């Protein structure tokens, strides 16, 4: 009997895919019941923490006086979290200016880096979204989705792309932003540290980085499957960053899946208010190594394997190469960009983000124009993904037209007969 994989080895985004694909789960020596961890947490929290929870008594950083009302505006820059250094008076702030300088710069650069990462990663997730989920409803802070079985998917018969439109059917077009982001980032936390690792390292290389895996507490929203509400992720991944100043922060890139607004917290605040318990704390790169142990067993032409390869390519060739190209063309670096005065930073940030968003979309569209990413059936009628333009040409005359599919929809025997006949005639 083989050794069963430990739950933390399973990439969170794969848990629901494996539930649908029992042969794959069996081949990987994973029991479906193992994927169904403890019941999903209840939505008992709020989108943002209260000022009391974050700042406590608001003690003056210089003299310790409580209930201080002045704070350093530069530390609070970024819009990704509530970070404030309080002072009871302007004289106290002036006295502390020299001691505060390095802390202020480090906090500001970190906030700016996180804000850039989040905007670009959101664009990346939207343009490479491939989750086969459909929105059902939302009740009392729980968002219910339904998984669509690949075998009943018309996309393979007609050669549609494995990519899905977002929000598409996954989320109502008129849904509030928090609901859209909860679905977009659902079960996506390990992706940041595996697929996006190279991009994380470039933007956040100034600190000592560790990956933390936790069980969350007090989410504001919970995304669940309507059929199996206990199919919950094993844990949630975030980044622990220790700056050269000694301050430690938590960066929760995908906390929006729990309805949380902020991405950047002081470490102690995050641990106190967001963490139920720790599963692990390890050096950066652990999630990527663990993911590799799973994906090496998955066919590169399967939907899971192709999706991983496609997303990795978009990060490397769209995000990372686009970032390097931008810095070369503008004769700058990450540190120089993040250190600019506020008005200049806003302008340069907008240019960089627009450049990289275009780079992401171009990298996604280029293979799609060649037919790469379209779905097809093998001889056993298992879904696979076209990986080359030559393969796309091979199936060009095999895929069913919309009219052919509609005329035989629901008649699996007829659909398979037509498919086999077309394959034979195209050989």
From TrEMBL:
UniProt keywords, alphabetically: Metal-binding, Zinc, Zinc-finger
MF term (GO), any: zinc ion binding
Domain MYND-type: 60-104
Alphabetized InterPro entries for the sequence: Znf_MYND
Keyword Zinc-finger: yes
SUPFAM superfamilies in the cross-refs: HIT/MYND zinc finger-like
Pfam families reported for this sequence: zf-MYND
The protein's name in its UniProt record: MYND-type domain-containing protein
UniProt organism field: Cylindrodendrum hubeiense
